Amino acid sequence: MVCVTSWIEISDERLRENYRALVATAGAGTAVLGVVKANAYGHGLSRCARVLAEAGAGWLGVTGVEEGLTVRAALAQTAEQPRVLVMCGLCEQDAEAMVQAELTPVVWSVEQIGWLEAAAVRLGCAQAVRVHMEIDSGMTRQGVRPGAELAGVLAALRESGRVRLEGLMTHFASAEVAGSRQTAGQRRQFEAALAQVRAAEFVPEWIHAGNTSAVDVGEVEGKGQSAELDAVAWVRRVAEGAKTLVRPGLALYGYCLPVEMEGVQAMSRLQGKVKPVMTWKAKVIGLTEVGVGDAVGYNGTYVAERPLRVALLGVGYADGLRRELSSSNARAGGWVMVQGKRAPMVGRISMNLTSVDVTGIAGMRLGDEVVVLGDGVTAEDHAGLAGTIAYEILCGVRAVEQVG
Ligand SMILES: *Cc1c(COP(=O)(O)O)cnc(C)c1O
Hints:
Blueprint: E1 6-10, H1 12-26, E2 30-35, H2 37-42, H3 45-54, E3 59-62, H4 65-74, E4 83-86, H5 95-100, E5 104-107, H6 110-123, E6 129-135, H7 148-159, E7 163-170, E8 177-178, H8 181-199, E9 206-208, H9 212-216, E10 217-219, H10 231-239, E11 243-246, E12 260-261, E13 266-268, E14 278-290, E15 295-296, E16 302-303, E17 308-313, E18 335-338, E19 341-344, E20 354-357, E21 369-373, H11 379-386, H12 390-396
Parallel strand pairs: 2-3, 2-11, 3-4, 4-5, 5-6, 6-7, 7-9, 8-12, 9-11
Antiparallel strand pairs: 1-14, 10-13, 14-17, 14-21, 15-16, 17-20, 18-19
Helix pairs in contact: 1-3, 3-4, 11-12
Bound molecules: pyridoxal-5'-phosphate.
Pyridoxal-5'-phosphate binds at residues 35, 37, 87, 171, 211-212, 247-250.
């Protein structure tokens, strides 16, 4: 077998435990849809889908039809097929595959309903095509706005013989901000949409809203706040007896955004209960003694001020390691974990190579493994240095899983 110098390892156990922590936090009466879109945030779609289905997830959320088909193939041997919500839109060309594979599309336009209707007719489907409609409650991304726009889509649904409205959903733009005025406005818009849908005599069986942060942000005991901080409780209240779902992604993989507070006190319900699922490792492919005055890497941004022992790792920005983690004498960069200790990056990260300072770490040898991302160096640490969010770091890891 050839040598792989950078790879990821996935902890099925942590994924399962994170899922269970989310189920417990969402509470009885609210189901948890496991968001596995974007290749399970870089963790591997097929594997994560299997683990979550075995853990009891009744719903999974994917990006598009292609990922939906991957989930169906991965779960071919599974007795209890989870429902698969296709969250990021439907193109005309995908309508037939969507119907055939019994994927559940999120829709918001008259056109999308027409494509599904036509596909169901062409395929001679006996069963109704169940769809979930997204309400644009104020994020101005996907979805239909309450009022005239929604009335138009409801009319299309009424005329359709084969497409059935099964769910109504929305997505919050600022779920991590407790007491957010934007969220309050979005809730009002969604409640208005629900009232409009019910007045048109549609009865959605599923009502859902809420990502990781919506599950995470909780009331501080004994504060007696008037604002209903708990988004899960809000969904249950407005659902008026319909089934409810929350749709966490990030927390499944072990991360939460810090809770921000807008004039209220709130707490994180998931912090410490979810743990990183991905460990990204790299191999030491070189070890060298660097003398005072030696410049390390491209453009010599780091010049040794004392004698250093430097390990060369077989990982770089081609594998998704952010170049912003590079260091210079003026600016500390990222680090990797070696034997539980930090080894700081020295100089610029190259395409497939990275140098780290292992001075004082005893017994380093060629072929040793180091942790590029995982315990002791999280996706949040990478994100902080790269000026982005943990989401983008996780999705950007291009090292592949090592099997066996
Ligand atoms: C990605 C996504 C989620 C999951 O968000 P997290 O912040 O990762 O929990 C939920 N709902 C929708 C509509 C999404 O697009």
